[in-house]
Structures are given as C-alpha cells and as structure tokens.
Amino acid sequence: MGYELVSGGTENHLVLVNLKNKGIDGSRVEKVLEAVHIAANKNTVPGDVSAMVPGGIRMGTPALTSRGFVEEDFAKVAYFFDAAVKLTVKIKSETQGSYQCFLP
After folding, report:
1. In whole angstroms, what is the distance from residue 29 CA to residue 42 CA?
2. In CATH, 4-94 is 3.90.1150.10
3. Pfam families given for it (predicted)?
4. What is the per-residue DSSP string for 10-23?
5. In the chain, what are the domain boundaries?
C-alpha cells in the first residue's frame, strides 16, 4: 500500500503512519476515519513544522485484539484505512480552492 511506519515497524501496541508521501495531512484523514467509525488520532511525525497540520495518523491495536481480531481482520482494517486515505486525497484535490466562493 506504500505507507511508511515512523518507527520502521512496531515496538509496541501503537502504529504511527507517516502520510506525507500521500500528499495529505493527518487532520483531514482523522476526520474521514472518524466518519466511518475507525478510531485514529492525528499525530506529528519527524519533519513536521506545525502541530496544527500533523503529517501522521496514530492507531492502536488493543481495541482490535480485545474484540478478537486476527491477522485477516487486521488486513481488512488496513484496506479500509487505505480507502479512507485515498478518499481524503480525492476530496482534497476536487475541492481545492472551490470553497472560496462561500466566503464573504
């Protein structure tokens, strides 16, 4: 899917995904994931210049494992995560600048 994990892997139950190579920020992706009931948090990644526009998304695995998710289920979550990121990128590209007409 082409995502970079900030640590290069996982040393604990948290996964921090760098979204910079996707051309989107964590704040926007967080909102789309929230709309489809996937819990995630925007998070800064190395190289970010502002905490207001973080370049990453953090997800935890305990909520999934406590519900009995197995490896195949995690693959489905990754698929839905990827679909949400792609949708966010698409919406951003289609609406860039077009909202200006709504400003006074």
Report:
1. 8
2. yes
3. SHMT
4. -SSSEEEEE-GGGT
5. 4-94
